[in-house]
Structures are given as structure tokens and as C-alpha cells.
Amino acid sequence: MHRQIPVLALLPSVILLASCSHHQHESTFLSVNTARIKTANFQPRLQAISLLESTSNVVLKPESEGRVVKIMAREGQRVKAGETILVLDNVQQSASLNASKAQARTDRLNAERYEFLYQQGAASAKQRDRYVTQAIASRDKALADAATLGYKYVRSPIDGIVGDLDTVKLGDYVKTGQSITGIVENTTLWTLMQIPASQADAVKAGQTVKVASQTDPPVTGRGEVTFISPYFGLPGSKNAPNTVMVKATFPNLTGQLKTGQYVKSEIITGEQEQLAVPVQAVMMQAQQPFVYRLVPVKQALPAIKASAHASKQALTMLEQLPGDTPIVIQTKVELGGLQNNHYPVKSGLQSGDQVAVSNTSRLRNGMPVKVNKRTN
């Protein structure tokens, strides 16, 4: 059963054909390539502009105050965990540690001596215990002084790359907890996406996420959803209201993506078979997508004859064409997002429909055409 052709859609073509010679032959028709509408595999996806963050990113802060006497690293340098970045003035702390170590050694020797005398019966248990206790206290004092001295060496807590060090110079006096620089490890990144509540149910842990930088050409990455917030954003929070925060983790294989960078993110929420129309077939008119669908003139004639606006001359013209002469019908369509040079068809076309994919800008509604090449 053939689809009914909208009469009003054909009226411009009726006027067009009325001006043509009835001896017009197929060889004078505009040639077009066509494609058949058939199903294709589409991957529904949610898109967002999102912020990248490193999974290892710390702000370096000294645990002691003091004057900077050495800068042991440079900005942009890759460092290992425990590697020294800054050295603060530590003359007093070093002296205290040396004294504590010397006292600890002395007290340890005394404790060992009195332990030997006690075993020989030449000293009492009370004397031995006093020296052992003193040795333990001296040892702990040396450990505490070593820790105090260690605070004068500002070290990286993680493997990573040193950030900006321009804020600190030799001779500067820094305070406890003052931000010195950042250490960032960009080998693994998070992308933090805010997904509207209306789409949140489609997101599941483990779904594939593709990211692309906003550069030309784009730098791409691929990971998966690793966290879905258990609550929606509220007014006044850092997340947009009525959105859910979704986190995806992915390896930064090229090393070109960086913490703090905004990227285009796509969460692939599944796979489904849908009718597909090639991108070359789609035209726009007043923000309404349409295609030129080919039908034989004999199929279109009943609708044209039923129209009160069709002229007798135009009808005569159409009736003189061979019944299988293809004409193009401007057909409104509703489409999904473009994937692999095809749009998923939501409405307007059926499987097996034939659409023009070339010379579309020269076509007019109801125009007879010659099929030059057909693709499946």
C-alpha cells in the first residue's frame, strides 16, 4: 500500500511543471544520486562540556615556617614522591638533632653497660632500669628532633609535575600552611560532568565516555563512568541545580590533556537499531529538517488530482509523463543526533524509502528527476 502524498506539498511542483514543455524527455531531467532508507546501529549518548581534574593533584604547603635557603626543583619538572622542593633555614634544628643523637648514643651505651653489670650481679635492677629509661627518652628526643628538622625540607607527597614556583624566591619567609605550588600527576584524569535530572536515569557505572579537547585538531581520550553522585545539585552548591554529578576516569595516553581543561564529553548510554538517513540527504528550512523523497509520478497523481489548487494544465503535464517517472517530494523529518555521517530517523520516513543525496540544493518540490546512481 503506497503512502498518501500531501497535496499541498505538491502545489509548487504543479506550477513548475505547467511551465515546462510536455515534450520534455527524461534526458533533460536533473540527475540525482539516491539512497535507500534502512536501519543502522546507533549509540545513544549524552553530551556535556566538562572540567578535567587529575586523580593525583595536591597543593604543596610547608609544615613549618622559615626562610627559603634552597630551591631544589623548577616549575614543570617531574618529581618523585619524597623529593625535596624547597629547603628552609634549619641551622638550629640541625644543631639540636646532632646534640640529641650524641646524647642518645651516650645513654644507649650507659644502658647497655648497666644491663651487663646487672647480669653479673654488680648493679641493681633499679639502677639498670633508670639508665634504660633514660636511653629510651634520649632516643625518642632524637627522633622528634629529626622530625622537626624534616619539616624544614618541603617535599613532594606524590609523583607528579611541579606547578608554578614564581611565588616563592630565595630569601622569602614562608609560613606554616602557606600555598607554595601544586604537584599534578596527569597520567590519569577525571572528567566531571553535570547531567540534567531528566537524563540522569540513562547513566550507569561502567558506560563508555569519550572526551575531546576544544582544540583543532582535538585531543581525544576514552574512559568509563566510575561515580554517579547520590544526590542532585542544590541552589548555592558548586553544582548546577537539578543536575547530577557524573565522574569518568580515563588514562591520559598522549599526555596532552591537562587538569583544569574543559573538554567535550560524551557518555555512550547504549546501542540500538534505528532507521538512518545520510547526512547528504538532509536540508534545513526555517530550522525544520527535510529530505527529498523520490516517488513515481503515478503514485503522486491521485493526491494532486484531489487538490482544488492544481491546474488542469499541470495535471495534463504530469499525466503525459511515464507512470514510473520519479519526482521528488519535500518531506519533513524528525531526526536524532548525527553519528557516522547518518542521522537516526524518529519520524517522516519508512524503511525502503528512496531519498536524493546529490544536487539537493537544485531540487524543488515535485520536480521530475533522473536517478543517476543508487546506493544501498
List keywords for this structure.
376 residues, alpha+beta, OB fold (Dihydrolipoamide Acetyltransferase, E2P), 4 domains, rod-shaped
Brief sketch in words of this structure:
By secondary structure, the chain is an alpha+beta fold.
Q: How would you characterize this protein structure?
A:
The structure is a single chain. By secondary structure, the chain is of the alpha+beta class. The protein has four domains: 7-41 and 273-375, Beta Barrel (conserved putative lor/sdh protein from methanococcus maripaludis s2 fold); 46-55 and 184-270, Efflux pump adaptor protein, beta barrel domain (Elongation Factor Tu (Ef-tu), domain 3), CATH 2.40.30; 62-88 and 152-178, RNA polymerase II/Efflux pump adaptor protein, barrel-sandwich hybrid domain (OB fold (Dihydrolipoamide Acetyltransferase, E2P)); 90-151, Orthogonal Bundle (Helix Hairpins). The chain is 23% helix and 38% strand. It contains five helices and 22 strands. It has helices at 7-18, 91-120, 125-150, 297-305, 312-319; strands at 30-36, 38-42, 45-60, 66-71, 78-79, 84-88, 153-155, 160-162, 173-174, 181-196, 208-213, 220-232, 243-251, 262-268, 272-278, 283-285, 288-296, 326-332, 334-335, 342-347, 354-356, 369-375. The strands form four sheets. Strands 1, 16, 17, 18, 21 and 22 form a six-stranded mixed beta sheet that branches. Helix 1 crosses helix 5 (312-319). The longest helix is centred in the first third of the chain and has 30 residues, at 91-120. It is rod-shaped and about 135 Å long. The protein starts with 6 loop residues before the first helix and ends with a strand. Residues 7-24 have low confidence and may be disordered.
